[in-house]
Fold this protein.
Amino acid sequence: MPSPISLDRALPDFANANIWRAGELASASLQTVDTGYAALDQVLPGGGWPLGAMVEVLQPQAGLHEWGLVAPALALRQAASPDQTAGRLLVLVGPPHRPFGPALEARQIAMPRLLCVQGAAGNAPSLLWATRESLQCADVAAVLAWLPDARSAHLRRLQMAAHTHHKLLFVFRPLRAQHESSPAPLRVLLEGTAEAGCNLRVHVFKRRGPLLGAPVLLDTRPARLSALLGASSERARRQREDAAQAASPVAAAPGFRSEPVSPTTSNLPDAQKALTHALLDRLAHVDHLE
Amino acid sequence: MPCWIALHTSITSSERGGAVLLEGGVQRAVAGLALGFTPHVALVDEVVLMDVTGSLRLFGGLARLMQRLAQQLAEFFESNRLVANTRRAQGATSLIATGRLRMVAGANQSPARQHSGESAAAGSMPMQRAPDARRVADLPMHTLSAALPHLGVLERIGCRTWGDLLALPRDGAARRFGAGLFDALDRARGQTPENHDWLTLPEQFDEKIELDALVTQAPALMAGAERLLLQLHAWLLGRQSGLTALRLIWHFDKRRDVAPTGEFDIRTANPAQDLRHVARLLAEHLAQQKLAAPVHSLRLQSLETHKLADSAAATGSLLFEAQHAGCSATELIERLSARLGDASVLAWGPQADHRPEQMQRWTPARGRSPVAIKSGAARARFGWAADRKSSKIETQTRFERTSAVGRSTSRSAQSGRIGRGDALYPSWLLFEPMALATFGNSPMYQGRLQRLAGPQRLEATGWAASRSDASGVLQSPSLLPPGHAEGRAEGLPAAAACAPSPSLLLLLRNSEKNQPAASAVASVLPSQAPAIRDYFIYRNQQGALLWIYRERLAVAPVATSPLRSWYLHGFFA
């Protein structure tokens, strides 16, 4: 009984990465774009979004989380060196709302090279046609398409076009497409969460590799926004604390402060502190109550 | 040493969908191409004759000229999806060239272009000898047009080649056969000068064809239009121009209440000799066109053409990948606009304004200069052409223009623009702010919302009007006089900065103390009341972040509408 030898040694020609075994993550034969999130890079085959393949993103409602997910990769793609013949145009087909320039520029997306294509009213095949035409253009770097009414047969043609022209293609569909079969080699489901430090839960439920057990948690908000929200929540917490302290007869330590505050309030007794805070918070509360 | 080339082309087959062309059309097309090499082109019988004596020096010799001619013919027919068989022959005079061509055709030699008819002239031209090369004197009689009426008699008296005819006593034969035969021989030998009707191309292309049958559906007009486009292509090649605008006119059957013709124009941004892109635009327009009556004939007119410095430069760079990588951005935009309408394909433009919906402007991408959507590929494409041809002025200026603009756009991108990015704005902005229902005092959007970040105030006039029409009065932010803002306390100065860049510290302090973060009071028309918006960040039950504002109008537009209402303006994606 000959000892089993590994496939690589037995067939040395097959030792390169052109063979994908079903239990492994396909890696070196794919050309990928870095997603910008380390946790997501680890679970995607090839370590990033695949070039020349369709990435299907399912979400309950269009317009909630897309930019956070794809903006770092798009910025990388658009900043590709001008020596290559692949251009830097970014095409949005059928977006649910208008992209807002200043916010996207903060994510390093070049807005002058963004093209927004609205389909003809009530005409879903026109969106598919526009997507396919954009994929065939040499100057396009990536295409984002919102196709709520597309069927799998139509998506197959998009997948082939993306493969032929080696482009980055994201297709956004509603949640009900989860149970249909699809030709996309990578399918991802997005969910927002309110957990600490993360705002997006990403389920990769189809990829070239073994099934992913747990969803990936990402924080896709820009750093300034996270800082703002953190500061606001800190302030809200402090207000609740102060309100609780004002209700109870325990006197607060006069020097206890955690943020810089005008020195006039720190020496007042509690009741006046509460009143001052109420004065300072007047606008929000007054509007709130009226 | 005079040098003539004779060409004959026959269409052996055309692929399904290719243009259908009659013999005369092919000949004219080839003549148009030949005009790119020499101004002296004539159509004689079935042959296209070119006098290339003056062009040999420019093109670097006969062999190179023949090679370029063959290449251009191949490209032309391939771009129109036709398979054509071209025979060439060369001679010292036009009749010699014609004779050799016909001899080749008659002898059924292999139609390979390298070996057709290139036999040596009478000792003076250094040509390679074909296997059964003949001297001019050995050309058979049937290749001379003037001898065709007398072919039978000449056969019977033993005159089978041109040499035999020359050997006949001249005066007797002239009396017998007429002077025309010997005139032709003299012309063939170069002893009398030849003159032909040189072919000239008209200034404007204007061709009309009759369709084979009445056409009722507009997309079926495409077949006829393709024939016209083929002729237009040949005309452009002959005039060394590129096309930027053309007009297609169709003529209806006579009906009482229908105008006699219908037409539309097609315009492209880049002058084109290769008409594939124009053909696709034409197909798109025809697909959406409705015909009021059956059409019996079509007419194509060229409206605007531009001279191209070098036709080779017009078709692209030397790089194979650059040539065949697909269309360019401008072509994509034109195609999308043709089918979906100009208003559906939009490009971005920034505006200096503190109101969020006025900070950007989406305009139809087609009307914008190609500079705005220029890519590195186009620059590379023109860069090759400019390096190759230093004397081609047009290509050079185009390259300079694009490279200069490319440099300036990249410089401007690095040096900062109006409204440079700010991460505290939402990534999506709704087309129109959406009014929200309220539960108690907080807004509701698919469930209850939780407020995360405090108010940021934006104040301007013209908002009540600007919601219906986007062109609000341009506001210029100015310094806020100290006592003006509502709800201030403690003498803290209000921020004079524009809303586009509130600092984080400022927002923190303001969210603690609820000062207005940025107020800009405009110099206004006194009739418009100021509108005040407080923007908040809310989180909904699915974890998404919403940008919601509360509007406080100083004067209610309608008596019963509330003065304060909540609107959803954007999503933080």
Q: What stands out?
A: Chain A touches chain B through 86 residues (CB under 8 Å).
